Amino acid sequence: MSTFEFLWQGILVAMQPMNLVYALVGVTLGTAVGVLPGIGPALTVALLLPVTYKLDPGGSLIMFAGIYYGGMYGGSTTSILLNTPGESASIVTALEGNKMARAGRGGPALATAAIGSFVAGLIATLGLAFIAPYIVKLALVFGPREYFALMVLAFVTVSSAFGDSALRGLTALFIGFALAMVGIDQQTGQARLSFGIPDLLDGVEVTTLAVAMFAIGETLYIAAQGNRIAEKVEAVKGSLWMTAEDWARSWKPWLRGTLIGFPIGAMPAGGAEIGTFLSYATEKRLAKNPEEFGHGAIEGVAGPEAANNASAAGTLVPLLTLGLPTTATAAIMLAGFQQYGLQPGPLLFATNPQLVWGLIASLLIANAMLLVLNLPMIGLWVKLLTIPKPWLYAGILLFATLGTIGANPSVFELGMLLAFGLLGYLMRLFGYPIAPAVVGLILGPLAEQQLRRALAISQGDVTTLVMSPIAAGLLIVAAAAFLIPLILRIRGRGQVLSQLAANED
Amino acid sequence: MSEDNTSSATTRRPDWAAFIIAVFLFVVAGVMAWDASHLKTIAQYDRIGPATVPQVVAFGLFCLGVWTVAEAWRGEFPERDRQEVAPVIWIVAGLAGQMLLLRVAGFSIATGILFALTARGFGKRKLWFSLPLGIVLSFVVWAIFSQLLQLTLPAGPLEHLFF
Prior knowledge:
The complex is a heterodimer.
Chain A: H1 3-14, H2 17-35, H3 41-48, H4 57-81, H5 91-102, H6 106-140, H7 144-161, H8 166-180, E1 183-184, E2 191-192, H9 206-224, H10 244-266, H11 273-286, H12 299-314, H13 316-322, H14 328-338, H15 346-351, H16 353-374, H17 378-385, H18 389-407, H19 411-429, H20 435-457, H21 469-490, H22 495-499
Antiparallel strand pairs in A: 1-2
Chain B: H1 2-11, H2 16-40, H3 52-73, H4 85-121, H5 127-148, H6 157-162
Helix pairs in contact in B: 2-3, 4-5
């Protein structure tokens, strides 16, 4: 069957009334939670995971996709109206968007963000649908050593290539690895790092770690700042609609942002931030009136927002085709797949095409729903921003613990949640990124499995890892991605990299 | 550029808190290596076994610890803002309270306490208001999630009163 036929089948699956309801619930919850300040898409997905526990896999993944896209939309609203971006990928949107809102042009800023996200989401999801089968074909020739090399590359890009310190990124990654070792070894059945505690035999749950570090760590950090950070929600004044001039200035940045964002998301290169920064820089260079940048230029909202959503769809390419999460959000989505015993990858396309294509098609539907949901109902979402901080964070912790209790109602699990929450707070305090720890926890065991398989095939000969051209090439790229930023930082050119810090998504 | 770097390096002092991080990394590496050596005593016939990767990770953590010491000595960690301790203690107390009371008092009461103490950490002092509010809210959440979405959430006296 061709891609068109598969996609058509997927649309038929996604159009089933129950699946439409799941998608609608997903986008609504995703937007509502994503709008809340301090909550990015990764935490949105982690917090809402328990809602899907008792659904069937298809429905739950469709709801999940809606939550993911909804969280991205919600984040842009937060950063435009409140100068604290809910997610790191929206930092750039806040630069120009918040200035526009202060100048009374919040409506057009929100509109260009929403429509730009829609355009980018549409193109990028179609891109995902058409690229995925090719990567699946490529992945079929991948053996254990190629997979291992690919994961090494992902580890490097997630932890040390971007951000302000390779040391802190790698440390976070290795803490994730260390936690991943806890539990029963999958191949020999021996208990590792469990110290005779039965609760540790199952290992550390990805969702527990993600919720603890993102929700509890963040809450503790915000609380520890006292009342120093003054926040002001900009009211949406004036017309919500974009003028003809706004349209004329927006459509090119939307398309350029999509073109920049999608490939960056699709490569194992980490977060959506990089695309948004590149898009912002591009728009600034191409703008007819660059002096407007920094004072509320609509191009500076349209481009990065499109890039943001395009790379969100892009990250689904390695996730679905290779089972390789390159962002914290994707790592949690992988955990969502695993709770149904599904391992994304080339096999899933062969064994469960209905599910995969239904998911891809439902992304298209979720995207359209979000446009309808966001433009007319923006006033409702803005109200969520005015929830006073004490109630907001009390509520966040209520739902954060709810997820953990729902997954495993044990005192021990809550103890881990508290311990990791404190760890997350300290990491945040000392400038350690969180995402590498989450990615290390979920990808660590998979990398170990591939490594041991590769070495078992070669009977323990380590050189086998570089004997295949694909694996050797990937490892060389990984080494370059590790060393080049290190050299740049030593030579004092690290500022560019720290701007690209992959913090949350 | 390079001038800038040297001048800031000379003014910065060793960062003692960062040394503690290094110690923590050494301890984790040590525990992992110890645990891995413990695994070895069990029959293992090929060179690549369950102990291999933990040993590699332990070695990696050890190297990162050394690197941390170097950066801490040169004071290269980012500067930290002054942290308020009291709110953190309130919230941790809330989480600990929920953890300990969950089995005895059920989801609503335990989570209500977490809710009230978190709000207290953010400056809502009126516990007589926030505690009942938290319990009612948690109860609504409990009802939705355990009855509609069939999640297993521990029930206590309050939940048994209604369901």
